[in-house]
Amino acid sequence: MHFLIFVVMKKIFLPLLTVLLFNISMIANTKLHSDSIDVLHYKITLNFEDYINQQISGNTELRIASKINNLDVFCLDLLKLNVDSVKINSSDVNYTYNDTLLKIQTSGFSANDTFLVTVFYHGHPVTDPSGWGGFYFYSGGAYNLGVGFADYPHCYGRTWFPCVDDFVDRALYDLYIITPFDKYAVCGGTLQSVTNNDTLSKTYHWKLNNSIPTYLTSVAVGDYAAVIDTFNGIQANIPTYLHVRPADTTKAKNSFINLNNILAAYEDCFGPYRWERVGYVGVPFNSGAMEHATNIAYPNACIDNTLYYEELLAHELSHHWFGNLITCKTDSDMWINEGWATYCEEIFRKHVTGHDAFKSHVRARHAEVVRYLHVEDSGYRAVYGLPLDMTYCSTVYQKGANVVHTLENYLGDSLFFSAVKAMLDSFAYNNISSIQMRDFLSQHTGVDLTDFFDFFVFSPGFTHYSIDSFIVTPAGQNFDVNIYVRQRLKGVTQFANSNKFEITFMDSAWQQTSRVISFNGETGNAVFSLPFYPVAVMADLEEKTADATVDNYKVIKTTGTYAFDKAYFTAIVSNLPDSAFLRIEHNWVAPDGFKTPHPSYTLSPNRYYKVDGILSDGFLAKGKFSYNATPSTQLDHELLINTTDSIVIFFRENSSREWRRTKFTKTGNAYVGFLTVDTLYKGEYALATYSWISSLESNTEGTMHLNVYPNPTDSQVTIEYEIKKTGKIEITNSMGKIIYIQNISKGNNKIVWDSRTHIKGEYFVTVYEGKEKISVKKLVLQ
C-alpha cells in the first residue's frame, strides 16, 4: 500500500493520519493460528443488499488442512461481527467467540487431514482505529482495504470474513458477492459469472487462481464501468481492467496511458507478471491506495485525466512482485513489501519517464530521508525490526527503497536483477524473511552480503563515503592513482564493513572512467591504473549509493545562475572561457575540525560542502550557500543557537589544509538567508559561527577597550571605554534585542547607564568604533 509517501508528497489529500498506539497486551501470545492449521481455500458468500445500513450477511467456507496430530480445537480470526453458527463437514459444532477470536472444537484431526469449516455470520464490518484500513461504506456502495495501520495483526481480512489473518498463510479464493440489481461487484481474480437472482439482486462469482494471504483479498461494490485492454507479457497476454465510475472512463484511459509500459519495465527487471489479471478499482478514499491482488483499490481522485499520480499507480502495481508474489514473513520484514515497492518507483521513472526524471526522483527521496527521517520517525532506525506501531512508517518505505537502490549498485545491475528474478522464482507465492533474502542473494550472486545487510538492513543511521586524498604517479604510458578514502557515520556508531562505492576519474579533456573501491572499517586505500592523468576524482558521481551525501553535477555552457537540486547551493557564473563541469556535494556529516583550535569559531556540526569538477582557466563564479536555523528545516538549528553569534563561511582546498575564513556577502537575517562567496574555488566549504563575545573576551593584546562595573549589579552601571574616533555603545539582552544605544566620541571615556528599569538576566555591552565592533562585555543584572 501507499500511505505516507502519497499523503506527504501529493499534499491535496487529508493530513497525515496519526497512527494510533494500541493495547498490545493481546500480542503477548505470538503463536500463529497457521502453526497448527493451513487454510487451502476460502469460499466467501456475502450479501451486500443492505449496504445502505452498512450491514453484510452470509457465510465463509474454509477448506483446512491440519498441520498437527490430535487437532481438537483451532482458532480463526473474525473481528466484531455476529456469528450465527459453525459447521465442520456439514455438522454443527461447538464454538466460542469473543468478538476477536472464533475458537472451534473438533472431534480430533490428524496431521494432513483436510476438512471443511463453514461459518455463518452477519453484522457491520469495522474500520481501523487510525481511519486507514478495514471496511468502508458510502452512499454508492462499499469496499475494503486489507490492512489496518493501528490494529494488530495488521492483516485485516478478519473485518469481513473468518480467516487465519497473518502474512504466512496463503490460500485460493472463490467469492460470491450478492448486490442490489443496479450495483456491480469487483473482486480479485477473474469474473466467472453474473447471476440474476430476481429483479432485486445479482450474484457475482470471482475466482482467484493464485494463493494469497488474507490481507490481499478484496471486494468493492458500487457503480462501475470497465476499461479493458491487454498487456502482451513475456509469458502470456494478460487482460487489464480499470473498474471506475462510469463518468471516469476517459479520465482512466488518460491517467493509465502508460500502464503497459510500466508492466513491461517491471517484467524486464523482475520477470513475468504471474497473475491472471491486472486490475484497479476506483474507490472514494483519499489517503492512499491498497495493493489487493489483481484488484488494486485506487483513489477516485487520482483518476483525474492526468499523469500526476503515476508514481502511486506504479508503486501499487509493483506489489505484484514484491508483497503479493513474495510476502514479508513478519511485520519486522515489512520493508520487503514496502521498501521494494517504493524502490520500484525509480524503476518506473528510469524506464518510462526518462533518465533525468529518474535521477531527480532518487535524489529527492534520498534528500528527504537523510535530512528529515530521524525527526519524522523519532530517531535513526533500521528498516528491519521496527516496533509494531511503526510497521508502516517512512523508514520502511523511503529508507527501505534507499537500501534496495544501494544494493542494486553494490552488486551491479546484471548480477542484481538476475538474482532478484531467481529469488522471485524460488519464493513465488510464499513468504520470505530478511535473513532468507540475504542468504539467497548471497548464494546466487556469490557475494557475501552479511556485512551489507548488517549495516543497511539491521542497523540505524547512514554511512558516509568520501575521498580523503589521491596521488598520481606516471607508470609508463599509464598513470597510477593511489587513492585514500574514508567512512564517516550519521546516526550510528559502528562502521560498516565490506564497503563498496564507485569512484570516477576525469582528465582536463573530460575523458572519464570509473572504478569500484572496496574496504573495511573507517579508512581504505587502493591503487588504480588509468590511461590518462586525472584532475578530478569524485566519489559516487552518479548517486548510486544512498550514503549521507546529496550531490549533483552540471555541464555549464553559458554564463548565468545554476541551482543545484537538493544541495542548497547556487552557482552564479560570470565568466566562462570554455564549458565547465561543476559538481556540488552536500555532505550530511560534520566537517573535519580545525587543525589549530579557534575558540571564536564553531564549524557546523552536521554538514559541509565540496566543490569539484573541471573548471578552465578564467572560470569565474560566485557561490551562494543557504543557511536556515529554523528547527523544522533540519539544516542549521544546531549551529545557530546563540543570537549573539554571526554566521560565516570557511574554505579549504583539501583535507591536508587548514580551514580559513573566506570573504562573503550575507543576504537575510540571523537565522535564514544566504552567504555568497565572491569567487568559487574547488575545495570544501563549511558554515560556521563566529562568537564575538569569545573573541573579544579572549583578547590578549593588552589594550583596554571596555570596562563595565559594578558587575553584577542591580543599579547604575559605569561603562568606561577607549576609542580613537566617533562610535557608539550598544546594550543588548540575551535575545539579541537592542535596549540601549549611546553615541560616543574620542576624548570622552565614560558613561553611566541606569539598569533598574530592566529585568534580571544577562546583557551584552558592545563598543563600536565607526562601524567596527571592537569590544564586548557580558553584564549580569541581579
What would CATH call the architecture of the domain at 31-222?
A: Sandwich
Instruction: Choose one word for the global shape.
Output: elongated
Can you tell me the CATH class of the domain at 31-222?
Mainly Beta
**Class inferred from helices and paired strands:** alpha+beta
The profile of the biggest β sheet is: 8 strands, mixed
Please provide the count of β strands: 46
Helix % is 10-25%
Q: Helical element count?
A: 11
The CATH topology of the domain at 31-222 comes to Immunoglobulin-like
Rg for CA atoms: 33 Å
**CA(first)-CA(last) distance:** 61 Å
List the helices and strands and how they pair.
Elements: H1 4-10, E1 37-47, E2 56-66, E3 71-77, E4 82-88, E5 91-92, E6 95-97, E7 101-109, E8 114-123, E9 134-138, E10 141-145, E11 171-180, E12 184-187, E13 190-196, E14 201-212, E15 219-222, E16 225-232, E17 237-244, H2 249-255, H3 259-270, E18 278-283, E19 296-299, H4 310-318, E20 326-328, H5 335-353, H6 355-376, H7 394-411, H8 413-426, E21 430-432, H9 434-445, H10 450-456, E22 462-475, E23 478-490, E24 499-506, E25 512-519, E26 523-530, E27 536-539, E28 549-556, E29 560-564, E30 569-575, E31 580-587, E32 601-603, E33 608-614, E34 620-628, E35 645-652, E36 660-661, E37 664-668, E38 672-677, E39 683-691, H11 692-697, E40 706-709, E41 716-721, E42 727-733, E43 738-744, E44 750-754, E45 761-769, E46 772-781
Parallel strand pairs: 1-11, 17-18, 18-19, 20-21
Antiparallel strand pairs: 1-2, 2-8, 3-7, 4-5, 4-8, 6-7, 9-10, 10-15, 11-14, 12-15, 13-14, 16-17, 22-23, 23-26, 24-25, 24-27, 28-31, 29-30, 30-34, 31-33, 32-39, 33-39, 34-38, 35-36, 35-39, 37-38, 40-41, 41-44, 42-43, 42-45, 45-46
